[in-house]
Amino acid sequence: MELLEVGLAAIVGVLQLGFEAISVLCILLGLIACLRLVLVQPKRLYTPPFIDIRLTLGSWLALGLEFQLGADILGTTIAPSFEALGQLAVIAVIRTFLNFFLSKEIEAEVKIKG
Question: Which residues cross the membrane (predicted)?
Answer without folding.
Answer: 6-39
